[in-house]
Each structure stands twice: as structure tokens, then as C-alpha cells.
Amino acid sequence: MATEGDDGDRLRPLAVWLAREGRLIGTLGAFLDAFLGRANQAGLPIWRFSLGLQLMHPQLQAMGVLWRRGEPVQDVARRHGIQFTSAYIGSPVQAVREFGRSLRRRLDDLTGDDHVVLHEVRAGGGTDYLAIGLPIGGGGHIPVVTIATDRPDGFSGHDLDDLRRLPDLIGAIVEMHINRMIATTVVETYLGPETGRRILRGAIRRGDGERINAVLWFSDLRDFTGLNERLPADKLLELLNTYFEVVGAALKRHGGEILKFIGDGVMAIFPIEDAMFLPEATGGAIDATREALAAIDEINAGRVEAGREAIRFGIGLHVGIVTFGNVGTEDRLDFTVIGPAVNRCARLESMTKALGVPALASADFRRVCARPMRSLGLHRLRGMPEPMELFTPGH
């Protein structure tokens, strides 16, 4: 039996729940799952519900949250360019987002002129469909809510009145989640996932720092100064992005995280919580090294054949204690790693060219790495007081 307020208002118990409990739920998907379950209990005949959001994201144009009664909530990602495809053009979402119109459509008399999404909803069991905007502050593209029912006679007039009030009911909480998602995306895009989490947890005071043990990676392009002189800006950016993409993909796949881009250099770490995991982390660094070098060899074959500059870089690998924290001015900070281990890792990379190998590792790295490595003997690194034994990954 439907649960309503004393005056028959089905939304009243939902509003009370939102104010007391709903606003405390940590993720948008979990919030909508809990809210829509209660909406069904209150008598709202919602079978399918979607919420489409524009995003500030380097890879995604938008994302959606899709809920169907009795099924897990789904996150639906939309890559950049979706707005130019038939999936968006002519859709109910476009009508709401760009033309400010709400749309209600019975699904039992669709024609070939109706958008494919309506036919898909009907094929899944839907009988009636409503698309409405969810206004939020700050301007920009508004989120779009779509609601469908599988009740044979569709939505009643009373249902439509209540459903059109839902955006105002949940708007503030949805906007809170959107802002949280944007903040997370921005810090993770520019600072990386681990650094981003630390920042969002409040590590934003200058001088805040933490000493951690980590496997360190530093890679650097060969002849970047010459490339700057020879290549036009668009070609240089394309080369840089290809190099960064190759290195970033290999690091991510094997447990590493880029801390920062330093011009054409990449500083990354493989964080470890306990020294017992050092063999696993150093193994991941070796695997990332091999993968990145193999990928760039394959890419270079095509680049050389097309008459473009080959991409060449060296990699330094080290293990040590670093300080992970904030440096900068009072109102402009950088979250970085500092310490002698960082300098040694960069010096190792600089020796790869002199020794004619693509990657070098320190004796400290070799000591905790179970993978085969070949000694290149003792060498003096710039700024280091004593010669160090250097190693290159074996096969």
C-alpha cells in the first residue's frame, strides 16, 4: 500500500527523509537508489529513472546514472563528441537541455519519427515517459531527468504533477554531488588520484608533509631542446601527449601514479605501505618500464615511416624515503615529493644516455627487486659524493 502524508501528499515523507538521511549518503548513485526505492513505496509509479550530467572531465562529455526498479544502479559514461551523434541529436535530453522543453510521451503509439531511445525504453517494458530539467546554480547545461513507468495505463495526471516536483525536491542534494564530482575530477586530473584524495581530505596547509617509502620513477625525453627548435607548436604538443600517454598508461596498469609533469619529464611513484611490498612495487616498475619502451618502439615505427620525429626517452628507477607534502606560498601551493631519493632518481635517468641504455636502476632498487637485472658497474652521478653501482633491467 502506498505511504502518503496525512494530507495525501506522497512527496512529504520523501522530503522528510531527504532532510534527515538522504543528504548524508556519500555517492550520487547510492542516493538515487535509496530515494527511488522510497518513491516507489510512497506510490510513485517509477520503473526507470535516469539523470544525465554535463561534466568537467578530460575524457567524458557527460555521465549518467541509470536506475531500474529491482536492478543495481548503473553509471553511464558519455565521451566527448556524443553531442554530435544520433544518440543525442533529436533525443528527449537534447529537447530539454538545449530548448528548455519538458517532454511527455506515451510509448504505446510510437512511430518511426520518435527517437530511438523512446523505442528502447518501450522495448524494455516502458509504457509512458517524461523528460524534465533539473535547474542548478552557476549556469551551464542543466542536468536532465527522465522517468518512465511500466504501469499499463501509464502516468496519471496526479503522477505527472508529483513527478514534475521531483527536480525541486532533490535538486540541492544532486547539486552537492555534482560539485563534489567536479572537485574530485579537477584535483585528480591535475594532481593524480592519491594526491587528490589527500587534498580533499584536508592536506592543504603549507608545510604539511608525510614521510613515505616509495618506488620512484623519473623519465625524460631525449633532445627536448632540439625538438622545441625544430618542431612547430602543434607537432611538439602531439609528440609530448603521445609520450605522456604511453608512460601514463604503463604506470597506471602496473600500480604507479604520475605525481607531476616537469616540462618533458614525468615524476611518478609506486607507493607502498610496508617494506614487505617492495618486491611487488619494484616488479611493477620494471613491468611498466618494459611496457612503455615496447609501446614507444611500435609507435616510432609508424612515426618514422610517416617522416615524423621518433620519440626517445630514458627512465630512472630508485627506492627511498621521500617527503610527500605541500610547498609554495601562503596562497599558491604545490603538492610534491622532495628528498635526496628524488634527486638520485632524476640523476639515474640522466645517465641513461651516457651509458646507452633506455633505463637505469640504483643498487637500492636492485636490492629489493626480484626481477633479473644486469650490473653496469660503478658510476659517479652528478652531485653524488661517491660512485654508485647501476643496473639495467634484464630479460
Describe the protein's architecture and organization.
The structure is a single chain. The protein is an alpha+beta fold and 395 residues long. It folds into two domains: 177 residues, GAF domain (Beta-Lactamase, 2-Layer Sandwich), CATH 3.30.450; 188 residues, Alpha-Beta Plaits (2-Layer Sandwich). The protein is 40% helix and 26% strand. It is built from twelve helices and 14 strands. Strands 7, 8, 9, 10, 11, 12, 13 and 14 form an eight-stranded mixed β-sheet that branches. Strands 3-2-1-6-5-4 form a six-stranded antiparallel β-sheet, sandwiched between helices. Strand 8 and strand 9 form a beta hairpin. Helix 6 crosses helix 7 and helix 9 packs antiparallel against helix 10. The chain is elongated. The N terminus is likely disordered.
CATH architecture of the largest domain: 2-Layer Sandwich
Count of helical stretches: 12
Measured on Cα atoms, how large is the radius of gyration? Answer: 28 Å
Note the beta-strand portion: 25-35%
Query: Helical amount among residues, as a percent range?
Result: 25-40%
Can you count the beta strands? 14
Rounded mean pLDDT score? 84
Low-confidence stretches: 1-7, 55-61
H/E topology pattern: HHEEEHEHEEHHHEHHEEHEEHEHEE
CATH superfamily of the largest domain: Nucleotide cyclase, GGDEF domain
What is the general shape? elongated
Largest sheet: 8 strands, mixed
Structural class: alpha+beta
CATH topology of the largest domain: Alpha-Beta Plaits
Number of domains: 2
User: What is the distance, rounded to the nearest whole angstrom, between the alpha carbons of the first and last residues?
Assistant: 69 Å
Q: What is the CATH domain class of the largest domain?
A: Alpha Beta
